[in-house]
Automatic annotation (TrEMBL):
UniProt record, GO biological process: pyrimidine nucleobase catabolic process
Span of the signal peptide: none
PANTHER family assigned to the protein according to its UniProt record, in alphabetical order: FLAVIN REDUCTASE, FMN REDUCTASE (NADH) RUTF
Organism listed in the record: Paenibacillus naphthalenovorans
Molecular function in Gene Ontology: FMN binding; riboflavin reductase (NADPH) activity
InterPro entries named in the record: Flavin_Rdtase-like_dom (IPR002563), NADH-dep_flavin_reductase (IPR050268), Split_barrel_FMN-bd (IPR012349)
Protein name per UniProt: NADH-dependent flavin reductase
Keywords from the named record: Oxidoreductase
Keyword Oxidoreductase: yes
Amino acid sequence: MDDRAFRNAMGQFVTGVTVITTNVGDETHGMTANAFLSVSLNPKLVLVSIGEKAKMLQKIKDAGHYAVNFLAEDQQEISMLFAGQIKDGRSVDFEWLNGMPVIPGAIGRVTCQVVNEYVVGDHTFFVGEVTGIELNDGAPLIYFQGKYRELASMNENETLLI
């Protein structure tokens, strides 16, 4: 199987869009990622997967902490900026949660202290113990088949069948 077939298959899985942020000294760094998952309730652990070629890999190693920002449906441009798809010198005025930079307007923001890291294939998994949570109203930005999407909302009279 070739890389393209694998990527196409993985694209069939709907994911949320996050921006992972950290700070090293006085510098703030961020990258768009959809490789994020909740690991454990007790202790509260989450995981992000960072590619071996990503600049963010060494930044998280150096910092020992990171924040996960769950983007809202109107934050596609923020995702594109941190994915390196917009390169026109724009900047983000970060907010701060537990001493870590977070994205304004994100529907969820979680700060984490790195407790483990694992090299798996061409990525490193950073397991973080959650140190702070902040939630905001809004719908998520999602990604499916290589495109940004919005979650279709149900009105209050609809019934979701499971």
